[in-house]
TrEMBL record, chain A:
Organism lineage string: Bacteria, Bacillati, Actinomycetota, Actinomycetes, Micrococcales
Subunit structure: Heterodimer of an alpha and a beta subunit.
GO molecular function: electron transfer activity
Swiss-Prot/TrEMBL keywords: Electron transport, Transport
Coiled coil ranges: none
Family note: Belongs to the ETF beta-subunit/FixA family.
Gene Ontology CC terms: cytosol
This protein's name: Electron transfer flavoprotein subunit beta
Cofactor dependency: FAD
Matching InterPro entries: ETF_a/b_N (IPR014730), ETF_b (IPR012255), ETF_beta_N (IPR033948), Rossmann-like_a/b/a_fold (IPR014729)
Protein function: The electron transfer flavoprotein serves as a specific electron acceptor for other dehydrogenases. It transfers the electrons to the main respiratory chain via ETF-ubiquinone oxidoreductase (ETF dehydrogenase).
Record's keyword annotation contains Electron transport: yes
Superkingdom field: Bacteria
SUPFAM superfamilies membership: Adenine nucleotide alpha hydrolases-like
Naturally occurring in which organism (per UniProt): Sinomonas humi
Length: 266, 320
């Protein structure tokens, strides 16, 4: 297999965080106005750079975008193909609605086994909707793989992946043998935009679709039925209301301190 | 009210005594029921005594002492082995990168529901958290026999137990093969420290954005006068004016201070995401149309290079 890499990038179709997002009466997220999760673009870019450094698709490298979600989630895959992924895999099934991280990792692990012979699995640092950052660790546990998470740099030398991970007080170099699960932060690179050529090329790229049955999974293991956590209540945070707004007439710094003093903050 | 036997995971233990966030975590665990502690490094006698004072009945330690040079798979494997001995109904970890990842792996090993980013716990196992970047408050429960929680700083305040006990210390072996899938830490460098409070734990945050035009001087001086942490908008970190470590917002840190002072930040939804749970928001911006004024308790339309230094001087004058 030489130096070529078969990389799977996990992508998610999420409500656009630029707009107000809402939780519906069934206590799940309303999924209109959805896009490829912004944080997944960094994962895709990292994968494409690793592939290109090894001669890209022509040399036998693959960057496969994998998603799980409704029919609409194929839009996240299409965007990934336009940006440069070589093919897509879409796991879709009505029973998946309401899946938590536990069920999501179960399904993605099965999909990765079906894809087979994967060297590297790359994810974003979090989904911009669920925000738990649990899936990479759970996926690694299910597949018996090491995880290198929150990478602000990523290199692969031979069969070893090396990342830099910036914590609160230290910056660590962490390495693991391939295959491995990696998650990357938004500091790792500048994601590219799809260009006209990429958009045209994407039309010829293939998306494979799997149902739960195709993956040998049972509906009861996933979705709301299989979830191990339950949201009991979801309330929008009361909207903040504007307070006192003044225009500086030369003494606003003092007035600001007056306000802080009145609130017993100085 | 049924009490849930709770296992609290503590990572590196300072020999001289537990850190305040670790004691807070024990207090969070005690909300659920009697606590035992799984500590990743062998505890000193002083630490064992301190654990007893904070209500810990049993302390579990690993037989291998170098769990700390690996990332998470071995810790999760060991913690699962501890859980097999301790039989807890709940496991509580901190909300750090490592805490969440160990929790995630543990969730798979124990078929346990994991709830992250917990800001408050109730005795019946209900966990409260903010979602969608602080725009919703949810309460959630695990439906599995074991629940795993990662708890944010400030969810509970450390307190000595009514009666101090002497915990038993039990060694639990790190399972064979636990290191097979470990990521190895091969290098570590200290990051520069500002001497200011940690951004996510600070009671006061002063944050600057595009309006600073790269000069964070007035932000830092006001922060120091208030004993505050410095924060920044994504525009400021993307411009390279200040390290990404200081970024507050959707892809940065989420803060919930008593006071958040925003200077030269428009307050677009991405930035608002990281700070809207602050108790009091003060905004200084030259553009009266900035969205930040819609959520500010006190706003100044003005030049931050004039308003902030004047406020800093005024605070110093009143203190003098």
């Amino acid at each position: 297999m030489g130096d070529t890499l078969k990389i799977v990038v996990l992508v998610k179709h999420v409500p656009d965080a630029q707009f107000d997002r809402h939780i519906g009466p069934d206590r799940t997220l309303e999924r209109s106005e959805s896009i490829l999760s912004e944080l997944d673009e960094y994962a895709l870019e990292a994968a494409l750079q690793l592939s290109e450094a090894r001669g890209g698709e022509k040399a036998g490298n693959q960057v496969i975008a994998l998603t799980m979600g409704t029919a609409d989630a194929a839009n996240a895959l299409k965007k990934a193909l336009q940006i440069g992924a070589s093919s897509g895999v879409h796991v879709t099934d009505e029973a998946l609605a309401g899946s938590d991280a536990w069920a999501t990792s179960l399904v993605l692990a099965a999909a990765l086994r079906a894809i087979g012979d994967v060297d590297l699995i790359v994810a974003g640092m979090a989904s911009t909707d669920g925000e738990t950052s649990l899936v990479p660790a759970q996926l690694a546990e299910r597949l018996g793989l090491p995880q290198l998470t929150f990478a602000s740099s990523l290199e692969v030398e031979g069969r070893t992946a090396v990342i830099r991970r910036d914590g609160g007080t230290t910056s660590d170099t962490v390495e693991a043998d391939l295959p491995a699960v990696v998650s990357v932060t938004d500091q790792i690179n500048e994601p590219r935009y799809p260009n006209f050529k990429g958009i045209l090329a994407a039309k010829k790229k293939k998306i494979a679709t799997f149902s739960l049955a195709d993956l040998g999974l049972d509906a009861g293991q996933v979705g709301s039925a299989g979830a191990l956590t339950r949201v009991e209540q979801a309330e929008p945070r009361p909207a903040r209301t504007a307070g006192t707004i003044i225009t500086d007439e030369g003494d606003a710094g003092v007035k600001l301190v007056d306000f802080l003093a009145a609130q017993k903050l100085v | 009210m049924t009490m849930t036997a709770t296992l609290v995971y503590l990572d590196v233990l300072p020999a001289e005594g537990l850190r305040k966030p670790q004691l807070d975590l024990l207090a969070a665990g005690r909300i659920l029921g009697p606590v035992s502690a799984a500590v990743a490094t062998p505890p000193s006698d002083a630490v064992v005594q301190q654990l007893g004072e904070h209500g810990v009945e049993t302390v579990y330690t690993p037989d291998e002492s170098d769990l700390s040079s690996y990332l998470v798979a071995p810790q999760a494997a060991w913690l699962a082995a501890v859980a097999a001995v301790a039989q807890p109904g709940a496991i509580v970890l901190d909300n750090s990168f490592e805490g969440k990842e160990i929790a995630g792996r543990l969730g798979v090993r124990l078929d346990a529901g994991v709830i992250t980013d917990v800001v408050a716990l109730e005795a019946d196992g209900t966990a409260h958290k903010s979602v969608l970047a602080g725009s919703y408050e949810v309460s959630a429960k695990a439906t599995s026999p074991v629940a795993v929680f990662t708890v944010k700083p400030g969810a509970a305040e450390a307190a000595a137990a009514p009666a101090a006990g002497s915990p038993t210390v039990t060694t639990v072996e790190v399972p064979q093969g636990a290191f097979a899938h470990a990521a190895r830490i091969t290098g570590r460098t200290d990051r520069p420290r500002s001497g200011r409070p940690e951004l996510t734990e600070a009671a006061i945050v002063v944050a600057g954005g595009r309006g600073t035009d790269g000069d964070f001087g007035p932000i830092e001086e006001l922060a120091d006068a208030l004993g505050a942490a410095v924060g920044a908008s994504r525009a400021a970190t993307d411009a390279g004016w200040i390290s990404h470590d200081f970024q507050v917002g959707q892809t940065g840190k989420t803060v919930s201070p008593q006071l958040y002072i925003s200077a030269g930040i428009s307050g677009a939804i991405q930035q608002k995401a990281g700070m809207q749970t602050a108790k009091i928001i003060v905004a200084v911006n030259s553009d009266p149309e900035s969205p930040v004024f819609e959520i500010a308790d006190f706003g100044v339309v003005g030049d931050l290079f004039k308003v902030l230094p004047q406020a800093t001087e005024e605070i110093k004058r009143r203190r003098a």
